[in-house]
Amino acid sequence: MVGMESIxxxxxxxxxxxxxxxxxxxxxxxxxTLELLRExxxxxxxxxxxxxxxxxxxxxxxxCAGADIAEMDAQDREGxxxxxxxxxxxxxxxEESPRPTIAVVNGYALGGGCELxxxxxxxxxxxxxxxxxxxxxxxxxxxxxxxxxxxxxxGYGRARALLFSGERIPAAQALAWGLCEWVVPLAALREExxxxxxxxxxxxxxxxxxxxxxxxxxxxxxxxxxxxxTDLFVELFDRPERRSAMAxxxxx
Length: 252
Prior knowledge:
single chain, 252 residues, alpha/beta, 2-enoyl-CoA Hydratase, Chain A, domain 1, 2 domains, 7-stranded mixed beta sheet, 4-stranded mixed beta sheet, 11 helices, 11 strands, globular
């Protein structure tokens, strides 16, 4: 395990784990932590040995309670824009990673913490987890992409309910709304997420990267998205991995 002050990372048989390590602050994200987090995500994603990236928080109370309010409150207009751009860059690194990214939500995922979870491909939540976008109660709005990504996950009506109310919802409700994919007991959370990651790690990495890219192209007009999907299929087709996989399927 490598400790980088407020971020800890370790490799687990092709899985790159990244842990926000500020449990005394409910894993809130200050500028230093955001910089280290972006660096860790980019390094993990670029490592050829990495098949899946998993993001979690230290302790059992919080995945991430959002941006560090004390630091944020001290910013002027220029400083706050820089801080928002940095948070968006971290979310972008998760979303644009060629590896599947999994949020392992062990407690509060609020504000920026919820926004980072939304930037991951898949979300595992403990039964005790809570999700929320409470920025309206601070007289601001989401700044790290939450308003855009939450609508894509839960639909316009539920996104409005979350953004307008600022209220937290429990893991069971998040699952019912489609905000997360799995809810499991806290004691089993990391092992369940690891088991899922191991299954993904056994897939062809180029095909998974292409699947991520194809899904992002769904935001294009339909004709463009369909063309992009076909282009990706053709690029993957002429590879020995494809021939081997199809030959194995035919032998079943």
